[in-house]
Amino acid sequence: MNVRRAIHIRTGQSASIAAVDTWLTRHELEVARFDDVYSACVHLLTNYERIADLALVGADWLADDEFNIITYIRQTWPRTAIIVYGASDKTPIYDVLPLMRTVRRQAALDELVAQNPADVVTELARRAVRSDAPTIVPATPAAQPEAGSITDSARAAVEAENRNSDSTSHDTRESRPEQSPSDNGGIAPRSILSAEELSALLDGTDHG
Amino acid sequence: MVDGATGGNGRRKGSVSPNARLLVIGSTALSDRVARALPRATRASSDTLLGGLWSVGHEAFDGIIIGLPLDQKTTRGLRSLRKVAPDARIVISCPPGAEPAARSALESGADEYVLEPLDGDELASALRITTPPPQTAPANRLPPADELAGLGDCLRSLNDGPQATLDRLVDALRKAFETTGVLIELDDLTALAGDVQQPVLEETILRGEAPAGRLALGSREHGSYASRDAIRLADYARLIEAMVGQAREQAHWQELALRDDLTGLHNRRFYDRQLNELIQQAAEQRHRLSVVLIDIDDFKTYNDRYGHDTGDALLREVARLLTRCSREHDIVARYGGDEFAVIMWDAEKPRVPGSQHPSEARALADRFRSAIGEHAFKCLGPDAPGPVTISGGIACFPWDGKTRTEIVGAADEALLSAKRTGKNRIELAKPAVTGDAPKPADETDES
């Protein structure tokens, strides 16, 4: 899979930010970097045509009301892989949602930056295919999201994760909470990718 | 600062409509307060700056009101808001203690700040919401019903001529303004109702931009005039000019409709109408009234010999002579063809029991005949066959009839009699009642 463009919202711990920046630079991705969610939001609103293949969001310094940036990324770019990284146990687990992954431990972050970004995105796409029709609100101007729609789902997963004491699990089938239309701002959900789209996506990857 | 409670950098100069679309970023309570302060504006709200920013990216807002703690995060959000919505008016709502921070926020993209509690005028001013000046609805400018009724009477009097219209207008205005008097002077017309020795309110009546007259009111019967009365008076001045102008125009057309084109005399339509009115008046006031029907003897001969143009000239000349010989209050009309009619009214003293046919009518009719007979008609030239002569028949009210038809019929009979008995003579109608002392039908009770 060809991964060329990324955005990085640098609202995490400095060490983590540096590791991610280094990773993106090493793989020669075109990166738009933002020090706060507001400038990132402006980018989404004004440069939505510059679709990123990968979005990285530092969670440690995000205020509760700023996690919605993840929802806005998803609404703007439905096929972008989103990785949220943060050391705090309170960082929501977005793995339950397609093309999303949460990295909550240093070891996991080290493991992430050791991979090729294309492999990471491919793996997330493969998981999206395996998952049972996950839902994402499409990005349309009329679709005003309810605050925390994605994050709420992810946070519900944190609680389940804590109960299972396995915070690194990527198996969404076991931890995915029920998601109702209201989780997505009351708008009827649809699959992020159709079966045909995912099939085409996977055919184009370097990894099989 | 606005009234010491708002401050701003005045970056945006444009004004915003009262129906502005606003975004409130802050608590629900703030949104409610904005709703109360600016009830005509429509609102969207977000409880977070990021949510507000996202909304601004998808919808155009005229103004954004932010009621959040003015910390570093809000400052960053402000800068982003300004980027996404460069034209929206951004106003910070903050408690008085946060004013220094609000002032700093102006450097980050806010246009203005207002101190809580929110005041509608201050918020509108900060958002540059301009309320158009209240316009008096046309319905409010309509006079009360009784005043309208008075104006209706004036409109109905347009047919009665400009003076009658003006006379009704002064009465209507006197009631409308509850004044001791009204004076209207317009061109050569004047109308006065009550006393206007010392006008209290005065308005020039303009025709176009030139003064054409004046409208003056005496003192108010109760209390004093209000400024609104001066405005009303100016309205009335325009109305008066328009109404009198209309009355003049109507009178002009009426005059044309009642005149004979050839001779300039009144025509038969006018004559009939006038005769009806005068008969009624004579009956009520016990006056005598005489009708003289005049016919040019052998007029066909002149037409045949000299042509119709000369015939027309002859008719015009006879008309002029009849007018000259009649009295000011007599009515001379062209009855049709070469026939003329003259109504002589108020020529005699009021009837008393035993009155007889008026003698003056006969004398006047003879004057007509001799004046025409002696006149040298230039239109006929030196070879005129002889003097132009007329025959006439006289009928008098009430002796010869009580209605127009009866009187005209009697005069016509007398005229035919004059023609039959040699022309160039005036005949009195045969009395309707024969006897030694003829009495009109309506005076039988007076005998």
Strand tally of chain B is 15
- Helices and strands of chain A, in order, run as EHEHEHEEHHEHHEH
CA radius of gyration of chain B is 42 Å
Q: Strand percentage of chain B, roughly? A: 15-25%
The main β sheet of chain A shows up as: 5 strands, parallel
Oligomeric state of this protein: heterodimer
Assign the CATH architecture of the largest domain in chain B: 2-Layer Sandwich
Mean pLDDT of chain B: 85
Rough outline of chain B: rod-shaped
Topology of helices and strands:
The complex is a heterodimer of chains A (208) and B (447).
Chain A: E1 5-9, H1 14-26, E2 30-34, H2 37-46, E3 54-58, H3 68-76, E4 81-85, E5 100-103, H4 106-114, H5 117-130, E6 135-136, H6 149-164, H7 172-175, E7 190-191, H8 195-203
Parallel strand pairs in A: 1-2, 1-3, 3-4, 4-5
Antiparallel strand pairs in A: 6-7
Helix pairs in contact in A: 1-4, 2-3, 5-8
Chain B: E1 6-8, E2 21-25, H1 28-37, E3 42-46, H2 49-58, E4 63-66, H3 72-84, E5 89-94, H4 99-105, E6 112-115, H5 120-126, H6 138-141, H7 145-156, H8 162-177, E7 181-186, E8 189-194, E9 201-207, E10 210-217, H9 227-257, H10 268-285, E11 289-296, H11 299-306, H12 308-325, E12 331-336, E13 339-345, H13 359-374, E14 390-397, H14 404-420, E15 426-428
Parallel strand pairs in B: 2-3, 2-4, 4-5, 5-6, 14-15
Antiparallel strand pairs in B: 1-6, 7-8, 7-10, 9-10, 11-13, 11-14, 12-13
Report on the structure:
The complex is a heterodimer of chains A (208) and B (447). Chain A is of the alpha/beta class. Chain A has a single domain, classed as Rossmann fold, CATH 3.40.50. Chain A contains 8 helices and 7 strands, in the order E-H-E-H-E-H-E-E-H-H-E-H-H-E-H. In chain A, strands 2-1-3-4-5 form a 5-stranded parallel sheet, with helices on both faces. In chain A, strands 6-7 form a two-stranded antiparallel ribbon. In chain A, helix 2 (37-46) packs parallel to helix 3 and helix 5 runs antiparallel to helix 8. The longest helix of chain A has 16 residues, at 149-164. Chain B is of the alpha/beta class and 447 residues long. Chain B has 3 domains: 6-126, Rossmann fold (3-Layer(aba) Sandwich); 140-257, Beta-Lactamase, CATH 3.30.450.40; 268-446, 2-Layer Sandwich (Alpha-Beta Plaits), CATH 3.30.70. Chain B has 14 helices and 15 strands. Chain B has helices at residues 28-37, 49-58, 72-84, 99-105, 120-126, 138-141, 145-156, 162-177, 227-257, 268-285, 299-306, 308-325, 359-374, 404-420; strands at 6-8, 21-25, 42-46, 63-66, 89-94, 112-115, 181-186, 189-194, 201-207, 210-217, 289-296, 331-336, 339-345, 390-397, 426-428. In chain B, the strands form 3 sheets. A 6-stranded mixed sheet of chain B has the order 1-6-5-4-2-3, with helices on both faces. In chain B, helix 2 (49-58) packs parallel to helix 3 (72-84) and helix 7 runs antiparallel to helix 8. The N and C termini of chain B lie far apart (101 Å). Chains A and B meet through helix 2 and helix 3 of A and helix 2 and helix 3 of B.
